[in-house]
Amino acid sequence: MDVVGKAAFNGMSELMANIATSLVSMVYNKQLMNYAQENGVAAYGVIMYVQFVFLGMLFGYTFGSSPIIFGVNGIWGAVAVAEVASCILSWAFLFTQNKKYHYLISK
Q1: CA 97, 99, 103, 106: dihedral to nearest 10 degrees?
Q2: Residue 99: φ, ψ to 5°
Q3: Cβ–Cβ < 8 Å for 44, 32
Q4: Which residues of the chain, if any, have pLDDT below 50?
């Protein structure tokens, strides 16, 4: 039981962050119901789901590249950082040049 207690205590920050996010969302939805009725709440819900998708991709990439960058020592660590930075810049360039690569970006 000691291990379970330590694990629960370790996860308290995530619990509090999720509770705070839920409370803010409820207050925001209540205010949207006052100002924009059901359509405002629906639009907010869609925006939040899109945000969750992009955050999932960002966290996945961050957690996936973290062992590559921090798991290598010496000169190979600099090479790994350069490769990851090159990959990030390549993707950023690819998706910002939508005129040249329009077939990769759905509209």
Answers
A1: 80
A2: -75, -40
A3: yes
A4: none
Give the list of residues 6+ apart from residue 47 with CB closer than 8 angstroms, or none.
Answer: none
| Residue 24 to residue 36: CA distance in whole angstroms | 17
Please give the structure tokens belonging to residue 6: 């330590």
Number of domains in the chain: 1
What's the confidence (pLDDT) of residue 25? 87
Q: Is residue 31 part of a domain?
A: yes
Q: Identity (one letter) of the amino acid at 70? A: F
Q: According to the model, what pLDDT value does residue 93 have?
A: 77
Element (H, E) at 14: helix 12-70
Domain assignment present for 3 = yes
Tokens of 85: 């930075």
pTM of the complete model: 0.52
- List the domain range (segments joined by +) for residue 29: 1-55
In this structure, what are the phi and psi dihedrals at residue 101, rounded to the nearest 5 degrees? Answer: -115, 45
